[in-house]
Hints:
The complex is a heterodimer of chains A (484) and B (472). By secondary structure, chain A is of the alpha/beta class. Chain A is built from 17 helices and 20 strands. In chain A, a hairpin with a 6-residue loop joins strand 6 and strand 7. Chain A is globular and about 75 Å long. The mean pLDDT of chain A is 92. Chain B is built from 16 helices and 15 strands. Chain B has 472 residues and is of the alpha/beta class. Chain B is globular. Chain B has helices at residues 2-10, 28-46, 51-60, 87-90, 94-102, 120-130, 152-168, 196-199, 201-209, 226-240, 242-248, 251-282, 293-305, 333-341, 441-445, 462-470, and strands spanning 76-77, 136-137, 147-148, 185-193, 215-224, 288-290, 317-321, 346-350, 359-361, 366-368, 373-378, 393-400, 409-419, 433-435, 439-440. Chain B is 39% helix and 16% strand. In chain B, strand 6, helix 13 (293-305) and strand 7 form a beta-alpha-beta unit. Chains A and B meet through helix 13 of A and helix 3, helix 10, helix 11 and helix 15 of B.
Amino acid sequence: MDKKYQVPLIIRGKVITDADLDFGGRRGGVAFTSPDVGKYLNELTLSAPSKMADLYSVSLDEILDLLAELGNRLNFDTNPYLQDAFELSCFTSGLSESILRYQYENMGFFFDRDEMAMMVERSCGFDYLEGWVEQPGGMPGLTARTRAFGSRAVHVIAGNAPIVSILTVIRNAYTRSDGIIKTPSNDPLTAAALARTLIDMAPDHPVTRHLSVAYWKGGDDQIESQIYDPRRIEKIIAWGGFDSIKHITKYLQPGIDLITQDPKLSGTIIGKEAFADEATTRHVAKRLALDIGAANQEGCVSARVIYVQSGTDDEGLERANRLGELTFEALQHIPEHISTPHKSFDMGLKAEIDGIRLMDEEYRIFGGRTNEGAVIVSQEDTPVDFSRMLACRVGNIVPIDDLQTAVRSVNAYTQTIGIFPEHLKEELRDQLAFQGAQRLVSLGGAATMQHNMEKQDAIEPVRRMVKWVTDEVGDPATLASLAG
Amino acid sequence: MSDFFQRLLDDPTSFHNAVYSDGFKLTREQIDQLQLQGVRKRFSEMRPLIPMLDKLAKEQGVDSIDTLEDVVPILFPHTVYKSYPLSYLEKSRFEKLTRWLNGLTTVDLSGVDASGVQLIDEWLDLLDRETPLLVSHTSGTTGKLSFIPRTKEQWRQTVVHSGCMLRHWWGENSGPDMFTEHRPLIIPGYRRGGSATQRANDYMIELFAGSEDNALFMYPNARFSADVVSLAGRLRAAEARGEQGMLEISPALLKRRDELMELEKTRGQDLQNFFDTARTKFGGKDVYIAGVWTLLYDWAEAGLAEGHSDIFGAGSVLFSGGGKKGKALPDDYRETIKGFLGFETAYEMYAISEQMGYSIMCEEGHYHIPPVIVPFLLDPATGEPLPRRDGTTGRMALLDLMPQTYWAGLITGDEVTWGGFDQPCGCGRTGTYVHDGIRRYSEKEGGDDRIVCAGAPEAHDQALAFLTELSQ
């Protein structure tokens, strides 16, 4: 891996490709160069909020047309920027080449005009983004209108899948925001590829003129102390955990709104119906394998700990073990554009699996020899102690007697829960919501169905990215009478 | 020399009280011969008595050792000594924990009745009382401690071994003979407790210091409690499991949380006493100091801030190691510490807590692996052994032939580069060495700004944050 990639700095339609600084990548040891963002700080942020006005010279329909056209140009076979981003991602991402290729080849899907229009409607509402909307009710003699305006924002994005860059570009455009995307070292090129395609297509469009993409090392105080300033930006949308947020928090002050998209883990609850007969168990195993294996378990939506109402007596454990065996088998048969053996299996996790392999009274392990993935079946109603490390297609089936054990194990760090059978979802959904769950899906759909991307698993970042402004109209006579 | 070699062939543990420097005069052929013979001996002795080793050997289909590489499949992952489920502790099922440990040692623990035990400290005390073992634990900040079943007899040998190393490292009788000329023992840590450093204390006082009042500890009264060091991690693990996790956590452990606050109150006074006594009682004398770099640095920093330096006699010796443990020490931390302490002689080791032996750094900056520890480098991805050639980098695995009651063959999480196969080290010592700059694979993976959406952030319990410090 001697090739050194060039990560450009993109500022409002301008592409800067100087190789001022070297950065080391991860995993495959990939290295890249980038311009020194420190030299361009004044250009990078929008000096005056009034410069947002040009975004309002175009209609929302035009913006969606532009995005749809961008989608058409994200043709993997002909778009060199995407090819570069894909090539680099093959080294930095935890996803295998076959999965990444599928994702880069199908990027256009997310720019479907009709779906984007519905996304707009579901997040803020088309009318609110396009104009002032009359509000019902209120005090006598007072009427009000509300509108959603774009903001000046920095997006500190995650790099585990290209979808993060795609969503950020779409959201920034339709909220008419001025976005600076700070890319991570594990995907420094995808957002830049989208921006460059947009620049080639519509260099002077206001949407192009309000999209910047930069890489700097997260935590670089010289850069961040300049950018994270309420005179320059209004919002920070930050993905990632404690480490990526903690250095941002020191710049927070009134005037900066931090929207965190915390890392989350997802799980599964399977009711006793899964064991009605062998065919049902096989069916459930296939769907469970999909929730564990899709996108190589790299996502926050991926299943890790699986509570199964098999019972915990000997027969119950046998049922759980059978499900484990079938799930591991099914995991090996998922199409390769969805899941493959992990190319960089976590050594720490491997050591944990090897450590408990000799504990056959406590755990039954299917697979986990090399990088093929594994299903670990606990022989008591508690998950493995390293449950937070589960990754690289390793799931942990936990047999339980009472579904409440599963419900009580859900907390504020839980995101998606795949559930079987369907009626169990309805029975448990309110309780799961109390505990902290955000997204409940049919088993198998955790990573393969994505109904409402704009809601970001119920974090609703788009509603928070915009500035909600109200225009209140008082009846003159009422106001005069108040003055006495 | 031939007697020495023959003794090693007959029993590798005999190295513990040998002239240490003789271990680095053996030829490569002798080293290979004694290692192969030693491995065969340990495997055949231990396999029938250690169920986990037997299980692993069966699973891997290893029945005999013909070459050193045949051992690789039956090296334990370093997680084995903590492979018990935490639920044993949370549900106070110490009889199961005893059974688990019984699976890892040749010592028969079947007669130990641990029912009714509530805390790890109680369990360790029980084993101390009723068995030949002096089980030590690690200080894992994750909350899960490894337990290593070494006997009292072998703990004594471990300390004797360190005395012999200090005496003979730069050649026979090149260092102090503390067995006959006792000297003050200074330890910036706990007097009592179950972690490896405290398990050696009794023996160091007896063998090196001669008496209790010739030894000084930073915390002379407090116990380095296994329950306390694991508390923060266990609470975090429980919280991560939601209400269910908190329901299952041991009430006895929660009570411990309050006792911690008491410990914290006397900590400042303990530190001050330690500083003052070190200076007034032992200042200017030739002493023996043992402690990890991070603790020594904290001490030096605090002492220098109060205007103290050159505390001890120039003939003092320091035994240290342990790396930076993720702390941001300045590049010149060794010099800062030596300047504060007032002497130059330092023995720097690379070791893992499961083993009795260790590797000491030479003048060339290389850690020399003694002949009774069999080193392996493994491919980090496949686990396959890498060639025994100088300059090879890989994942370190070590089999210490000295322990006789547990299988001390472990795959570490450390990335190292080794040498001493094609060319001996410039210092003249024979055998395998590893280069300085050892790092954990886990460190290599982290540290830059790779951001993903999957993970579980943890609430940071400020009240317990100091535990991380304590458990260094």
